[in-house]
Specification:
alpha/beta, 17 helices, two-stranded parallel ribbon, globular, 11 strands
Length: 511
Amino acid sequence: MLFSPARCLIILLLLNSTDAGWILRKIKERVRNLQLQEAKQQLQTISSRQPLQHVKEGRIHQQLDHFNRQDVSTFPQRFYVNEAHWQRPDGPVFLFIGGEGPIFEFDVLAGHHVDMAEEHGALLLALEHRFYGDSINPDGLKTENLADLSSQQALTDLAVFHQYISQSFNLSHRNTWISFGGSYSGALSAWFRGKFPNLVYGAVASSAPVRAELDFSAYSNIVGLSLMNEAVGGSEKCLAGVQEAFAAVEALMGGNTSQVAEDFGCCQIPKDLDDQIELMQNLADIIMGTVQYNEEGVLMSISELCGVMTNKSEVYEEEMEAYNRLVKLAQIYHSTSEEPCLDVSHEKTVKDLMDTSLHSGRRRAARQWTYQTCTEFGFYQTCEDATCPFSGMVTLRSQTELCPMVFGISQHSLPGRIAFTNTYYGGDKPHTHRVLYVNGGVDPWKDLSVVQDRSTEDGEEAQIVFIKDTAHCADMMSRRVTDRRSLKKAREEIERHVSSWLKMATQQKMV
């Protein structure tokens, strides 16, 4: 096997980037960094049963195109293995599926799935998604080569990896596989169980957007509802303040873009429409990121954001107060970031997306993920709906124009591509059984997942865990003292499902 000893934990980590704005991606990086720090602290206090040397890094040479027998080209796909908890030879296998970003040793060392692996004596695996992280050929990011980047190819990678690991560790039918993933990789976890039920016995799909959606206007609408949610510190007044602030920015930008640029610390004066849209998207990202990762210890919480937007002040005139509160939020973001200014250049955004150098592909994943939104998923967080709390300048057209500009993919072809994805996987009535869908009530992505009022295509009730007052992928972290009671109970429910699957699998094998 192509194993090498695991290196020390890497400082910069990227979380899934299932979103359009640059600031939201950067907030995700901070979330992932925070998770790393917590993992490090756990590893320092844990007994010698789980030292870092138990983790091994490997490479498997996957076919670039699994569906073309004539093409024998391959790429190196990275994976991690942790045998620290495994009860040989019949212990279960817990597979952590990588999404639109790199995987790290962290993914087999910490997290709720690792806690459960210790309890059940499971072999821990993590497989990196093709075309992300280090799993890219030198010329892999060129547009003509991105044709091999798709969820269908990624699922087949998982199937081949299953066979590879089974042979490498002499696994048999007695080793029960359970898959785990969050956000896009949560959808992959569900789809892997759906498309290859003979390989994986059960799947946990956290915050999984299993329904592709071209115009994902519901994202912004749910952000607005979360800002009103009193259970997490929101209020109607908070939402109204956000709406007023964005209206005020639009109004001022109509006659004084220099003032707006100065107030929000922009790197450039947003003189043309594209740059103004870029600014509006970035400002919305600060609030979107706050809601999506509420109470994860990054930037601020919904309660803190609403405190800024509603706390009375006599410093400003009433009509300017909401605007200045949004300026304050931007200042809070800047004070916690390493960016000297807010980049609102649309030209730079396009240039970055057209960068095909491998170094940039490893560092970030915006080009690859944008390609997948153009070819499979959409997920464009627009603001044309009247209930959107942000700027109506962020339209479907403004977001999808990147598809032809960067990849030569026609905007007119997008609806058909999205429809194919939903036909292939089943949308929010997926062709799945024994999949646990976990969602948070504050998470905007819940609208594209399977929640309480939905059932699977065959009419069977879907297995659901719904956490009314938590956000995106919160259940995937290891237990923390500060966790809400609802989150603690949700993890217990997830544990019960996984335990019951393993017991059921054992009983079936004894027959």
